[in-house]
Specification:
Elements lengths: L5 E6 L6 H12 L9 E6 L5 H8 L5 E5 L16 H6 L4 E4 L2 H6 L4 H13 L3 E6 L3 H5 L3 H13 L4 H4 L2 E5 L13 H19 L1 H6 L2 E4 L7 H5 L6 E4 L6 H9 L5
Parallel strand pairs: 1-2, 1-8, 2-3, 3-4, 4-5, 5-6, 6-7, 7-8
Helix pairs in contact: 1-2, 1-12, 5-7, 7-9
The chain binds phosphoenolpyruvate.
């Protein structure tokens, strides 16, 4: 069986001043003791802090930095936007794309996300691609179809080699920032379905290699159970990643296998 990476990813969203961000990162980094080289910790921080954060973690093995978005054009007259090339030039490792907050507030479409992903991959960075259904879709038990469309329209344009540079984060919208977590059964079921979608299109090897994270109110007290599921390879964590002790426990919950 192929061993895939287990990942704890912090999404700080639009929080913290530079002083607070430095303090939080330093507090966590000194206590992150990754003994398993298959584990990776990702900090998705606001744009203005990327360089500073990269500098602070550069000697740390398996701790990497992510941007929370980038623009869908290569360069040019797009005042206020940030390109993938710029992110790569300051040492960014991952770019989070398709977060439900961006889909909702900034009307990002599946097609636009493909353009962004292409640019991120062209610039030799990796992607954390977020997908997940709203509450009414879950209530109608249509979540697998909904997520299938998101994945088909955004990811299936890529080659198998490119897919290996993409991590999927399944985040049911009704569980984000609400304190409501999907049950482990609900989460494992859809993670398994997502892996099957990838397998059907790209084959077993790519599907088994792909890390699929769960996001939606992951906390210190539920991470272990979620991460123990066969198809859940870690978490994308919002609120709890702003509290050092919480996020450190979440990292410790990554399983060894
Ligand atoms: C997120 O925004 O990706 C997220 C999962 O947030 P929270 O952990 O706060 O639900």
């Amino acid at each position: 069986m192929m061993i895939r990476k287990k990942i704890a990813a912090a999404n700080w969203k639009m929080n913290l001043t530079l002083t607070q961000a430095n303090e939080l990162l330093d507090n966590m980094v000194k206590d992150i003791a990754l003994t398993n080289l298959n584990h990776e910790v990702v900090f998705a921080v606001p744009f203005p802090y990327l360089s500073a954060m990269k500098e602070r973690i550069k000697s740390q093995k398996n701790i990497v930095i992510a941007a929370q978005n980038c623009y869908s054009k290569k360069s040019g007259a797009y005042t206020g936007e940030i390109s993938a090339e710029m992110l790569a030039s300051v040492g960014v490792d991952f770019v989070v794309l398709g977060h439900s907050e961006r889909r909702e507030y900034f009307v990002e479409t599946n097609a636009q996300l493909t353009e962004k992903m292409q640019l991120v991959l062209d610039n030799k960075m990796k992607v954390i691609f977020c997908c997940g259904e709203p509450l009414h879709v879950r209530e109608a038990n249509q979540q697998n179809e909904f997520v299938h469309t998101q994945i088909q329209e955004s990811l299936f344009a890529f080659t198998p080699e490119q897919l290996t540079q993409i991590v999927i984060a399944y985040e049911p919208i009704w569980a984000i920032g609400t304190g409501k977590t999907a049950t482990t059964e609900q989460a494992e079921d859809i993670h398994q379905a997502i892996r099957a979608m990838i397998e059907k299109k790209y084959g077993t090897q790519v599907a088994q290699q792909m890390s699929i994270l769960y996001g939606g109110s992951v906390k210190a007290n539920n991470a272990k159970e979620l991460f123990a599921c066969a198809n859940i390879d870690g978490g994308l964590v919002g609120g709890a990643s702003l509290i050092a002790a919480e996020f450190l426990s979440i990292i410790k919950a990554l399983p060894d296998l």
